[in-house]
Design a protein that fits this description.
alpha/beta; 14 helices; about 10% strand; elongated
Length: about 300
């Protein structure tokens, strides 16, 4: 529990709420209900072990802050996330109601564990340690099966490591989400490309065969699209994008915009995790992804 004033409000409340929910307790020394509520809140902060941060504001001494939140009676509590109030209550609620209020908004223990494991995995990936990254992502998915970001990263890494069978198993629980999710739709497009390449009669002369047919007819979109999917299966991403853009430059609407949709999927797959930057700054875009996004926009909008 931290006593907050005008001087430390921005640091202890606004900035802190970008990383953990902050519960602000407006109280006063003369307030009887405040004296009963305060210890219960402090007990819950300890029990919830980092799932939220408790701060106290003396509404008599910090009238500017109390006015900012429109406090008219005490005790009043406001929960802030990412610098914004998301909920609140007035009065000394019993402990059971306080737990219900917190549980409605706070991440579960499973979510916190999964987020921590995923963060460690991404750090391991940045250091080139794929074994540790894979282990951490697997733990994240097991801890919180509903964590779509962790599952996307896990399935993606399995595919990058040519473990398509394991990837399909990990992807199966969210397959139904693919139609409405850009991330999962991209993974499905990759898996479909692998199926396409595995069932086609492709050999060492495949690339030359594609090139010959395209040279004979530059509007042979079926062959161009087949080549793009074959390249996707081989993780030759920029080559696949180049072929898809060739289709788009000639016929944007071909095959229900298959080329554009597949371009979007490939860009989703190859975009690396955003690096951490100071608060308020925008992380830089990957130059390859940014270049192909500009080319895609230029072709689609032309």
């Amino acid at each position: 529990m931290i006593d907050v004033t005008v001087e430390n409000f921005e640091t202890e409340v606004l900035a802190a709420s970008a990383h953990v929910p902050v519960l602000v307790d407006f109280w006063a020394p003369w307030c009887g209900p405040c004296k009963s509520l305060g210890p219960v809140l402090e007990k819950l902060e300890t029990e919830y072990a980092g799932r939220f941060k408790l701060v106290k504001i003396d509404s008599d001494r910090q009238q500017q802050l109390a006015g900012m939140f429109g406090v008219r009676s005490i005790p009043t509590c406001m929960l802030l996330m990412n610098g914004q109030p998301v909920d609140g209550f007035t009065g000394a609620l019993p402990e059971s109601q306080l737990r219900s209020f917190l549980d409605k908004h706070l991440p579960s223990v499973a979510e916190l564990v999964a987020n921590a494991e995923e963060e460690q995995a991404l750090q391991a990936l940045a250091e080139g340690d794929t074994d540790t990254a894979l282990e951490k992502l697997q733990h994240a998915v097991m801890a919180d099966p509903a964590n779509d970001d962790a599952r996307f990263d896990y399935v993606k890494l399995l595919l990058q490591l040519d473990r398509a069978g394991d990837a399909r198993t990990a992807f199966a629980p969210v397959l139904a989400k693919a139609a409405g999710s850009r991330k999962f739709g991209a993974l499905k497009a990759w898996l479909d490309a692998l199926d396409f390449a595995a069932t086609g009669a492709y050999d060492a002369d495949t690339e030359a065969g594609f090139a010959a047919r395209i040279a004979a007819n530059k509007r042979d979109f079926d062959t161009r699209y087949a080549r793009a999917r074959w390249l996707m299966a081989g993780q030759r991403w920029t080559d696949a994008l180049d072929e898809l853009l060739e289709i788009l430059m000639r016929d944007k609407a071909w095959n229900d915009e298959a080329a554009r949709k597949t371009c979007v999927a490939v860009l989703e797959i190859i975009e690396p995790p955003k690096p951490k930057v100071a608060e308020g700054q925008i992380p830089p875009e990957d130059p390859v992804v940014a270049s192909y996004r500009r080319r895609l926009s230029s072709v689609v909008l032309s």
